[in-house]
Every structure is written in C-alpha cells, then in structure tokens.
Amino acid sequence: MAKDSGPSWKKDHPGTFFGNSVEKADRAVKQAMSHPEEMAIEHAFNAIERAENAFRNAKQFNSELDTIQQHKGQLDLIKQQLNETQMKNGE
C-alpha cells in the first residue's frame, strides 16, 4: 500500500511552521553575518519577515504558547544580530 504523500499536519500546523521559519531566518542571518553582501542581508530580512508573519498566524491559532514565545525570543535576537550586521557594513 502506498504511503499518503499529502502534506503533514506537523508542517501545516502554525506553531510548527513558525518554529521552522525562525530556524530558516536564523540560518539566513548567520549567513549575512559571515558574508555581509547586500543580497545575503536582503535574504535575511525577507526570512525574518516571513517568520514574523508565521508568528502572527501561530498567535492567532493560540496553541503551544510556550513554544511560540520561545521562538519569538529567538526571532527577536536574530533581528537584533542582523541589524547590527547591517549597521557595521553601512558605516
């Protein structure tokens, strides 16, 4: 019997999607910090924006609040790191 290849509820769950978005944003910011070219910084800002949208969706879904808050703290930290990286390269 073939395995159902439909989307996983875990991937579609707003809290999980937010966590995954924060991880992607974190990787993008680390890339921008180590290679601060304009394209890498723009990619990181876009990843953070997607993670912030995912946060709003997860908050509306109103589940796993502890996990969501933990990811939000991580997102705030990586936003700060990206801003610092951009300021260093803008000077």
Structure description:
There is one protein chain. Helices cover 82% and strands 0% of the residues. By secondary structure, it is an all-alpha fold. Helix 2 runs antiparallel to helix 3, helix 2 (14-34) runs parallel beside helix 4 (65-90) and helix 3 (38-61) packs antiparallel against helix 4 (65-90). The longest helix is centred in the last third of the chain and has 26 residues, at 65-90. The radius of gyration is 15 Å and the shape is elongated.
Record field, number of beta strands: 0
Structural class: mainly alpha
Q: How many strands, what sense, and barrel or not for the largest sheet?
A: none
Helix content: over 70%
| Overall average pLDDT | 83
Please give the alpha-carbon distance between the first and last residues: 61 Å
Relative strand content? under 5%
**SSE succession:** HHHH
* Low-pLDDT segments: none
**Coarse shape:** elongated
Q: Helix count, per DSSP? A: 4
Radius of gyration: 15 Å
